[in-house]
Design goal:
The chain has 132 residues and is an alpha+beta fold. It is built from three helices and three strands, in the order E-H-E-E-H-H. It has helices at 24-49, 80-96, 122-131; strands spanning 8-14, 56-62, 69-72. Bound molecules: iron/sulfur cluster (SF4).
């Protein structure tokens, strides 16, 4: 591939937003906070997959009730430093709970039915085989 990526936008489509009387912006902010770590992980993955990328943007695109409603994360929030700091903090919390963030037991259940990684997961594959 030739050329240089100047910028990548990450768009994550979500389900319906609801206005509980505080205005739709409150709902947008709530969901943005909920997805923050996930978007930081995506941002960091893009930076690692495309070395020397000059800019990464992370945008949530809400499909309902307003199809064009978007939330763009501040660049400071999805920066390499901020993303790595948050990811490391979660890994540390997992470690403090006594779990190994790299090697852990699979938790099978009905979620395996829609998991796109079941071909790579022996436990999930076994669970699904026993279901059929
Ligand atoms: S298939 Fe494996 S990775 Fe997917 S949900 Fe089930 S246990 Fe988890």
């Amino acid at each position: 591939m030739t050329g240089k990526y100047q910028r990548i936008s990450l768009i994550f489509k979500t389900s319906r937003l609801t206005d509980n009387g505080d205005g739709i912006n409150v709902s947008v902010e709530f969901h943005a906070a909920e997805y923050q770590l996930q978007m930081q992980c995506y941002s960091e993955a893009v930076r690692r997959m495309i070395p020397n990328i000059s800019e990464v943007k992370a945008t949530l695109q809400f499909l309902q009730p307003i199809p064009s409603l978007e939330y763009e994360y501040p660049s400071s929030m999805i920066s390499e430093a901020s993303s790595n700091q948050q990811i490391q903090a979660v890994m540390n919390r997992i470690g403090r709970c006594g779990s190994d963030p790299v090697s852990f037991a699979a938790s099978t259940g009905k979620q395996c039915l829609r998991c796109t990684f079941h071909d790579l997961c022996p436990e999930g594959s076994a669970y699904l085989s026993n279901k059929t």
